[in-house]
Automatic annotation (TrEMBL), chain A:
Keywords: Iron
SMART domains linked: FeoA
Organism phylogeny: Archaea, Methanobacteriati, Methanobacteriota, Stenosarchaea group, Methanomicrobia
Gene3D superfamilies hit by this protein: 2.30.30.90
Keyword Disulfide bond annotated: no
Presence of the UniProt keyword Magnesium in the record: no
Name by which UniProt lists this protein: Ferrous iron transport protein A
Ferrous iron transporter FeoA-like domain ranges (all copies): 9-81
Pfam families the record matches: FeoA
UniProtKB/TrEMBL annotation, chain B:
Protein name per UniProt: Ferrous iron transport protein B
Residues given in the record as Mg(2+) 1 binding sites: N22
Gene, per the UniProt record: feoB
Keyword Transmembrane helix found: yes
GO cellular component entries: plasma membrane
Pfam families, per the entry: FeoB_C (PF07664), FeoB_Cyto (PF17910), FeoB_N (PF02421), Gate (PF07670)
Keyword Manganese (UniProt): no
Main subcellular location: membrane
Keywords noted in UniProt: Cell inner membrane, Cell membrane, GTP-binding, Ion transport, Iron, Iron transport, Magnesium, Membrane, Metal-binding, Nucleotide-binding, Transmembrane, Transmembrane helix, Transport
PANTHER family: FE(2+) TRANSPORTER FEOB, FERROUS IRON TRANSPORT PROTEIN B
NCBIfam families the UniProt entry points to: feoB
Length: 84, 666
């Protein structure tokens, strides 16, 4: 088995407090454009901050600011875990 | 002759554009700490150093690709209205993402100035920004500003004048790498074949926007003679890939600039994080949200009470003076019943309105609204709406008109339409007097809870209606929810007070204007035809009321309420003033509350039914106007009236009968 640190996972599976590096944005159309211009681009480091009380959405920190994304939308963002 | 320079204020949402605008032009536009407060362009003027500057404040936008209605307004102004100078207000504490728009503006070939706003916040955190170096690297002037205190705004105005005088266009653009540059230069060559096409835009900019799928630019190209050639070239590549490449290169350019001009402190846990740990906590988040709402309405009621008693006393005294000193019976009735009874009845609630708006503006200014949207998003998802739809709902507690306008930030048209149609169910400040009157009279100490229950009912009806619309007339997938979470800020006392005064004085103006007119009309209807006893069943008001009585009697209400409800369509407060006029017969001094309690036709159950009906029955004239404007058709405005009436009647009917059963008051 390959090391779990290097195989891509989707952003919605990243646990609060963990950091990951974005490797791909699989979204289409508007969502894709919006994610890209908000700094969700391959290579960026993204940290999962907290999950909303009802389980969705999730707050992330990227490029020095916080934003909230629904898990369904986060599922189209591929990341690899960053090892601290 | 004086010159006039036109300036566009642009920038990401929630960076303080409107605060800068207000300080420069002396305006009082609404500000708050959440993305999307400004949804319209607003123009103001200022005179500085013998120059007249016309400033246009624009809605916030993350890029020049516009999705939502407010972003389209911002984008079109910058691109089509050709302002002399574009000022991008930048959040100095969030530079990296803010500079993305700067990179796009740079390509536009316009004079651009960067205003490093909220620089005090960044400095307070320990960041240092060398604006001279940043200015060199961006090849555009950079000015440090603090919108709230006005620091640096004179420098900004001087820079605007200097830049406008030079008239120099910004020509510095970033490179996108060999592959993309080859594509861009191919496109530029093709576009150059049609000299009529460019229309003042740099060809390079048009090429870049075409690659990024900018619908307005593509439409422009579509009409030109080179449309086929552009299409053919774009079809050779994977546009998705190029789109990501361009975004990546822009961030790469920013990444190269920032370390040379700024040192950012390593982020430790900030105050906002600590607050959010509690406020958005898994177990505490929802209870805190509900407690805040409940507390707000309790406060509105409790704090205002002594003031209300004072105002009631003054109007009572005025009524006595009028009754005692004016000999002419007709005039005494007009002033006593019509003016004092009507307007006074509404005036009593001025303290409540002021406190409600103070609380709302503190919530808005703190940044909590974005958290509320975050906490409630899951619920919005269940009904098929984006979390953004929750903010207009909360805004609706103040007034539905700005709340419906704030839906412009919602990208999907159907999402937006649903959010607009359910907004009138959110209980606005104008309905509060009706509740306070009836709940205060019939429920005494429980009034606060009854009122809270009404607000909750409004939200529940809004949510269920949204679900119903989504399942029937406006089907669709819920669109993505991506929202910036601003850091908490302590609302400035000045802003909170200003906001309270602006909204509160609007209520006062309404009381002196449309409510006065409404009261006089009701007084006229209650006094004529000549010779009838004032406010009796033989008066015009009585006739109208009796005509409608079959409709309201199943709700436990009589003709007087029916008349008040009709006039309440103009403005909901008129329900109270009309009752003040109709019940204001002879004694003059007796407060409306005593008169209602003494009326045998009204019971506790009836009072509940009135409140439920007033909560739901139809949007007021102003709200109806804004629904028409924002949806672009009278059809939806008419629909919201009909739907509201049906829902209100059914729920008021159910409330009356259930309450009669449990309270035994029928």
């Amino acid at each position: 088995m390959s090391s779990p640190d290097h195989s891509p996972v989707t952003l919605d599976t990243v646990i609060s407090g963990d950091k990951a590096r974005i490797v791909g944005v699989k979204a289409k159309g508007h969502l894709r454009k919006r994610l890209l211009e908000m700094g969700i681009i391959p290579g960026a480091i993204i940290e999962s901050i907290r999950v909303a009380p009802l389980g969705d959405p999730v707050e992330f920190r990227v490029k020095g600011y916080n934003l909230s994304i629904r898990k369904g939308d986060a599922a189209c963002i591929e990341v690899v875990m960053e090892v601290e | 002759m004086k010159k006039t320079i036109s300036v566009a204020l642009t920038g990401n949402p929630n960076v303080g554009k409107t605060t800068v605008f207000n300080t420069i032009t002396g305006s009082r536009q609404h500000v708050g700490n959440w993305p999307g407060v400004t949804v319209e362009k607003k123009t103001g003027r200022c005179e500085y150093a013998d120059t007249s500057i016309e400033v246009t404040d624009l809605p916030g936008t993350y890029s020049l690709t516009a999705y939502s209605a407010d972003e389209v307004i911002a984008r079109n102004f910058i691109i089509e209205d050709n302002p002399d100078v574009v000022v991008q207000v930048v959040d100095a504490s969030n530079l990296e993402r803010n500079l993305y728009l700067t990179m796009q503006l740079a390509e536009l070939g316009r004079p651009v100035i960067v205003a490093l706003n909220m620089v005090d916040v960044a400095e307070g955190r320990g960041d240092t920004i060398d604006e001279k170096r940043l200015s060199e690297l961006l090849a555009m002037p950079v000015v440090r500003t603090v919108g709230t205190s006005g620091r640096g705004l004179d420098r900004l105005l001087e820079t605007i004048i200097a830049v406008a005088a030079k008239g120099e266009k910004h020509t510095h653009t970033i490179g996108y790498g060999d592959e993309a540059e080859a594509l861009i230069s191919d496109l530029v060559r093709i576009l150059d074949d049609d000299p009529a096409l460019a229309g003042g835009y740099p060809l390079r900019w048009l090429a870049v926007r075409a690659i990024e799928g900018d619908s307005a630019v593509l439409a422009l190209i579509e009409k030109s003679s080179v449309a086929g050639a552009v299409q053919a070239r774009l079809q050779q590549i994977d546009l998705d890939e190029y789109e990501a490449l361009l975004a990546d290169k822009r961030y790469e350019a920013i990444g190269a600039i920032l370390p040379q001009a700024c040192t950012m402190c390593v982020r430790k846990m900030t105050g906002s994080d600590m607050i959010d740990r509690v406020v958005t906590n898994k177990y505490l988040g929802i209870p805190i949200f509900l407690a805040l709402m409940w507390g707000a309405f309790q406060l509105t009621f409790a704090v205002a009470e002594p003031f209300m008693a004072g105002i009631e006393y003054v109007f009572g005294w005025l009524g006595e003076v009028v009754a005692g000193s004016i000999g002419n019976e007709w005039l005494a009735s007009l002033l006593g019943d019509g003016v004092i009874g009507g307007v006074g009845g509404v005036f009593v609630f001025v303290p409540n309105i002021f406190i409600l708006f103070l609380i709302l503006s503190i919530l808005e200014g703190s940044g909590y609204l974005a958290r509320a949207a975050f906490i409630m998003d899951r619920l919005m998802y269940v009904i098929g709406l984006p979390g953004k739809s929750f903010i207009p709902m909360l805004m609706g507690f103040g007034c539905n008109v700005p709340a419906i306008m704030s839906t412009r930030t919602i990208e999907d048209d159907r999402d937006r339409l649903i959010t607009i149609l359910v907004n009138p169910f959110i209980s606005c400040g104008a309905r509060l007097p009706v509740y306070i009157l009836f709940a205060g009279v019939f429920f005494g100490r429980d009034a606060g809870n009854v009122i809270f229950g009404l607000y909750a009912l409004g939200i529940v009806v809004a949510i269920l209606s949204a679900k119903l619309f989504r399942c029937t007339i406006l089907p669709g997938e819920s669109s993505p929810f991506i929202m910036e979470m601003p850091p908490y800020r302590i609302p400035t006392i000045k802003n909170a007070m200003l906001n309270m005064w602006e909204k509160g004085s609007m209520y006062l103006k309404k009381a002196g204007g449309i409510i006065l007119i409404g009261s006089l009309i009701v007084w006229f209807l209650a006094s004529y035809p000549a010779g009838v006893e004032y406010g009796s069943e033989e008066s015009f008001a009585g006739m109208i009321g009796h005509l409608l009585e079959p409709l309201v009697s199943p709700l436990g209400l009589d003709w007087k309420i029916a008349v008040a409800l009709i006039f309440g369509f103009v403005a909901k407060e008129i329900v109270v003033s009309s009752l003040g006029v109709l019940y204001g017969a002879d004694e003059g001094s007796a407060a409306l509350s005593d008169a209602l309690l003494a009326d045998p036709a009204l019971s506790m159950a009836g009072a509940l039914a009135v409140m439920v009906f007033v909560l739901l029955y139809m949007p007021c004239v102003a709200t109806l106007g804004v629904i028409k404007k924002e949806t672009g058709s009278w059809r939806w405005a008419g629909f919201s009236v009909l739907y509201g009436l049906v829902v209100a009647w059914i729920l008021a009917f159910a409330t009356f009968h259930l309450a009669s059963y449990f309270l035994g008051g029928a």
